[in-house]
Amino acid sequence: MIAYWNGRYLPKDEIAVSPDDRGFLFADGIYDVVRAYEGRLFETRAHLDRLGRGARALRFKETDFLYLADVAGRLIEENKLAAGEATVYFQVTRGAAPRTHCFPPPETGLTVYAAARPFAPHREDIENGINILLLSDPRWARCDIKTVGLTANVLANQTARESQARESVFVRDGAVLEGTHTNFFAVFAGRVVTPPLTNYILGGITRRVVLGICREHGIPFGEEPIFEADLERADELMIVGTTTEVTPVVRIHGRPFRSGAPGPVAVRLQKALREMTR
Ligand code: PDD
What we know:
Elements: E1 2-5, E2 8-11, H1 22-26, E3 29-37, E4 40-41, H2 44-57, H3 68-78, E5 85-93, E6 111-118, H4 123-128, E7 130-136, H5 151-162, E8 167-172, E9 175-179, E10 183-188, E11 191-194, H6 205-217, E12 221-223, E13 236-241, E14 245-252, E15 255-256, H7 264-277
Parallel strand pairs: 7-8, 7-14, 11-12
Antiparallel strand pairs: 1-2, 1-6, 3-4, 3-5, 5-6, 8-9, 10-11, 10-13, 13-14, 14-15
Bound molecules: N-(5'-phosphopyridoxyl)-D-alanine.
């Protein structure tokens, strides 16, 4: 597999990360994941704009990351991923320099990595729905930045796996926020609701696309807090993201939610999203 490493295209296993890299030492970096459908990248610009916003939030050296769209295209080509489905992963760190908590010397270059790989979505989950856990959110207060500091997400996702659940959804002060790698949606009396953009969730690209679908299809929607106690009144729940698309939630902590089957709004959103991506 050919990957991109600081301006060069190299066999992935020839890439060696410095032990001084601040991504390695401090998780001082950001990342993003883009889907490719039959070689066509979906919403690349939005993902790279988010990477740029993350870089500014972390006060990285001023950089325009839009060139990574061409990098992604070349990785798809070089790795013969133009037929079928793939993901492209981007990661940027503050670079490699002797360890200090403050920023490294100004001449330190950012470390930029990108790699493409085949991706098979969990079709069964998307069709039949999944079991989730609701877990107290132990993360820091800048969940809007897509940093590689994902330990809390890793632990929560592993807890889900060990409980025969597919995803854990974080709850802070009673508010249901987002999953370990997904945004959260609910349907109340035909109205689609997702938590508002705050520092406690990632501004998901799929979230935005789904809200756009609601607007276009005349489905009522709102960006409002969802409290755990509100879930009793919800007709449908979903998680959405680049890798999960629109996945219905049909069980919580193993207990069936409503009928235990995907609801009509989820199915409608899935169909509309599929039409946009295929
Ligand atoms: N995760 N919330 C969190 C915490 C995420 O990590 C992600 C994406 C999302 C959904 O965002 P988007 O629709 O832009 O993919 C929400 C990626 C896919 C990952 O970590 O692999």
